[in-house]
Design brief:
This protein is of the alpha/beta class. The protein is built from 19 helices and 26 strands.
Length: about 700
Amino acid sequence: MLLLKLAAQDLLTLNSRRRMVPHLAARWRHFRGAEASLTERSAWAESLVSLAEDLVAADRGNVEMIVECAATLDETDRPGEPRLIDVVLVGNHPEGRGLSVQLVELKRWSMVTRVERATAELVHVPGLGRKKHPALQLREYYQAFTSDKGPLHGLKFECGGFAYLHNATDASVRPLLDVDAPTGAYAHVYTNDRREQLMSDLRAHFAHDGAASAAEILLRNLGLRNTPLLDAMIRSRGEDTVFTLRGQQRTVADHILDRASKILPDPQRPALVPDERRAIFLVTGGAGTGKSAIGLQIKAELEAEGRVVKYASGSRAFNGAIQEHVGYGDREFRETFTYFSNFVTPPDPPLDVLICDEAHRLRARSTNRFWKPENQGTKAQVDELLDASRLTVFFLDEGQSVRPHEVGSVGLLKDAARRYGAALVEYPLREQFRCGGSDAYIRWVRAMLGVSDEEPDRWTPDGLMHVEVADSPEELEQIIRSEARAGASARMVAGYCWPWTKPLGKERRLEADVRIGDWHRPWNAYSDSFCENEAPPSKIWSVHENGLDQIGCVYTAQGLEWDWCGVIMGDDMVRRDGRWTFRRGKEREDKEAGVKRVAVPGSFDPKVKSGSVDDQQFARLIRHAYHVLATRASRATVLYSTDEETRVYLKELVGQAQIHGLRPTWENLPEVARIPHLPRPRRGRRPRKRRQDTGSDPNELRLF
């Protein structure tokens, strides 16, 4: 948890625009479930600004200020309130060039007196009563930050801390400074009298440059900059570690693995009388809460124990990316990933575990127009999945259902569990790890699209995620291509607002269906094989280097992510009279080209725009589709609407974001953040290592 991460100079700019305190208050409300008090707000406005001004005056305006930061990765596991540090200052040390961190307690106290019969560890503050010396809080933070489980573990660092009483004088807070006050690297106290000393010490702690790189290292260790899922899987094939499951993720994985060990037979010593108990887990959470990471983790753990596990999904794009990009040349690995519709005939014997990702995409029945009648599903698809294994795990986000025949819901799974006489164990996930860890961005997108009931507000840069609005599709494409050329992963996606032509002729040419004025580009290939100019098939469009030349849609983007994502909003969702209006499109025949074109702008998704979908459901599905598209980026989203009035609205909401180096272009990123994305592995299966006892913390589960 953190409320804001900005360089001191950027924080002052944000404050000058009167946007700092509202942003902090919104983040506070999200994390703490209550409004920030007037005292808290005035403290931010006064104390944060005072510290930032001193950093700038000390010529250290580049030092990163992480505001209201949780002390460890797993504060949610601790009883009571989380330990929140007022400010963590991060930069490079001027001598050793290692990480330099200062933990700061900001106090607006103007006077402190000693409490009778007490040491300086306990003081009296007028109007507030008895208070501990700030160094005692800082000692706890320091120990948490530097412990074996803290974010500085394994790094070369200097860490200290200080309390800053910018309204006080030395004389007015003498008990805090006396010889019997707490001592240590974290126990420094500065008053307004000591401002010059503070600035001198800040120059001694922090180099003039390099703070952005240092902050990236710390954010990664805090769990806010995750390795992209596909990259993590490639790196970890046959190895021990890339991702660390944390907080709620780790708890969920522990419980599932524990239940599996109790009801599944030992592969080495089968029971004479099999245990017939069945286990069903339901893990809910929004985009980026780590559902797939948990699923892939428990898959690896269970396979290492000799269990028979399959990983099912309703997404061709997600499965295709894993099978073709991660499992290239490894048939055994590829075959462990499958689809919901592949269990019409249950496996014999049943699987030990079936993991069902994106369970919101479940269908009522498993059917396909290309299947023979005898191969069509005759029972509910969810029942087929439950029949297929002893232990079933569903990962679900009802906010990502984008087609009318997708029936996956909490209610559906509860009903199925009752029919099977099985207890359904539910786990909600809340922590956000996508979009740079910026839950503020996720909430902003949901409010902007009307997915949530919150009133949309102007986007406030938080140092974690960037958003901007392009004036034209040419500008959007130029941004995305320039980032891709520089080394970032990047894709363009769009609402389904144009016809989608299958590859034409023997050369399998892609028609430029997405047409905005003079700008014409093809959709990703409507094909399972490569097309003209090495255009990749749809299932690997998201990861193939030539995918940049086509436009993706919600069905080929769902479940995936890139550094930069350009999102084209079409005429299916436009702003009129202060509200969103939703439109169904109509096509016409272009006889000269032999393809379909737009006659009436709007949605062209054949499943969504059909007459069987009422207006309320139509609007919900369109909102959900853009919610998926707008949350595919890990660093920056570029929005463009084909409708001028909608573009004006988006620009009003996004505002100007030109604050120093906040635009995370590849060139602006610190070197440590420029992580190249991996090519798919070479052919040839690499054996997966069995899980071994390494003497590490048994609670620390790692992805592969």
